[in-house]
Amino acid sequence: MSSEGKEENQKPNHIEITDSEENDNPTQVDPEQGRQVPGQTDEEPATKEKEELPPPTPEELKELRQRATKAEEYYDRLQRQVAEADNLRKRLAKEKQDAIRYANESLIVELLPTMDSFEMAISAAENSDDNSIDSLKTGIEMIYTQIKRTLEEIGVTEIDATGQTFDPSLHEAMSRMKTDKAEEGTVLEQTRKGYRLRDRLLRAASVIVAASPDDTKEETEQ
């Protein structure tokens, strides 16, 4: 048999048909069944599906709650520290201001007995019949007025307690006197002046307080 006859007797198992527009995806034809078989390519198109996260486990939920609790504790602690720092800043500012406002407090307290002495000297001179001390009285009054004006300029004020209701924060009761001419607890007499430096008490006023005539308490004197 010739070589040409051998070539005619050989039948191909598959005939490959290639689409000119889609050279990358050839199609094979099965001659026995007469239908096309999709060609297999070296690489299949990758399809990625969105993966859903699994729900947290009880252990993970417990850990999240613990972390949230810790975060709240740290936040509360931070807020307290901020508030404490702000209060400290305000307190230091007030202390600095008070140090300036009341810098002369101790000196003024020591000066008050001198004011008392001047007042007693003036009172004695007014009750004297000796005309020779008039000039002395005038000099004492001038010095007293000058000191009093200086104290007022730096914020010192007198406490006038006579006729006022007894106030333990401003007055010091030296004695109680029964009377029906004033309500109980009224200051009848001020035996020594009190003084304040701005809003701070330097010395309480020494006073005699009215008591009810029916009061069984004995009159006391300190």
TrEMBL record:
User: Which Gene Ontology cellular-component terms appear in the entry?
Assistant: cytoplasm
Q: Keywords of this protein's UniProt record, alphabetized?
A: Chaperone, Cytoplasm, Stress response
Amino acid composition bias (Basic and acidic residues), ranges on this chain: 1-17, 45-67
Q: Which PANTHER family match?
A: GRPE PROTEIN (PTHR21237), GRPE PROTEIN HOMOLOG, MITOCHONDRIAL (PTHR21237:SF23)
Q: Where is the major localization of this protein?
A: cytoplasm
List the residue ranges of the region (Disordered): 1-67
Q: Report the family membership.
A: Belongs to the GrpE family.
Instruction: Tell me the protein's name.
Output: Protein GrpE
